[in-house]
Design a protein that fits this description.
Elements lengths: L4 E2 H8 L2 E4 L8 E2 L4 E2 L2 H4 L11 E4 L1 H8 L3 H12 L5 E4 L7 H10 L2 E4 L4 H15 L3 E11 L2 E6 L6 H10 L3 E12 L5 E4 L7 E4 L3 E4 H5 L7 E3 L2 E7 L14 E5 L2 E10 L5 H16 L4 H16 L1
Parallel strand pairs: 4-5, 5-6, 6-7, 9-15, 15-17
Antiparallel strand pairs: 1-3, 2-7, 8-9, 8-10, 10-11, 11-14, 12-13, 16-17
Helix pairs in contact: 4-5, 7-9
Length: 309
Amino acid sequence: MNISVKLGTLIDEQGLELIYGPENHRDIAITVAEVNRPSLQIAGFFDYFDPRRIQILGKVEYTYLEQMNSKDRSNRFDQLFSKQIPALVVTSELPIFDEILESAKKHNITVLRTREVTSRFMSDLILSLSVWLAPLTTMHGVLVEVYGEGVLLLGESGVGKSETAIELVKRGHRLVADDAVEIKKVSRKTLVGSSPEIIRHFIELRGIGVIDVKRIFGMGAVKDTENINLVINLEPWQAGKHYDRLGLDDFTTDIMGLKIPSLTIPVKPGRNLAIIIEVAAMNHRQRKMGYNAAEELNRRLLEKIEEQD
């Protein structure tokens, strides 16, 4: 599946001024997260030029263009726009050269302007494009925010994921997604989860049906997106199976090439899963801050053994 974002979405998000745009300019699909400052192209060098990128004209390029005569400027923009770039954005609210408008109308290229300085605008735009165009996958599970940690609950159907999520919401935590979790890899280290729009803020409880968490528990009980910091696999308790009781081993779950810390929690009547998940989230946060209770206990045991020797 080709991931893209419409130019109109970026125009609204970044507050860009439309200088010129063909009739369908808002529907132009942006498919790459990189942008380009066309300094070399204005000088006439087009080797390795990627026409899929949004082009950004800043003060450096503008000052260079001011030194050209009108005919040369016209030729340069004819060359640039003939590549059918998605859009040209002029930063710092700089005046628009007449040659830009003439060539844009000739080649049907969208011209936009922002009052932001070039470096700040590029940073904001690249960050936005990285999110919109991030690789995407969907997993069957529940995503909740617990004490600031994004916890992805996985497990077979009927194991109690949704019921646990409702209990966590009642205890003051927030629901992000139930049943289907859309996961985007927004950077080399970060996964962000959200819910498909059609089922956002809804949760299914067997015996009751579908409920609207936002309406029942309030706006503070839901969240649209959350980083995935911890994966918890819920599975029915299996007698005789060895479960980790110390926490010295570090387990991970591979999601889109990233190793996410994970735990396996056995489910059986009488276990309060919501409290267990709260403790798991707090313990994970403590580990990120440099303290590992299992390692501390192990250290004390070793010291005690050495003392007895």
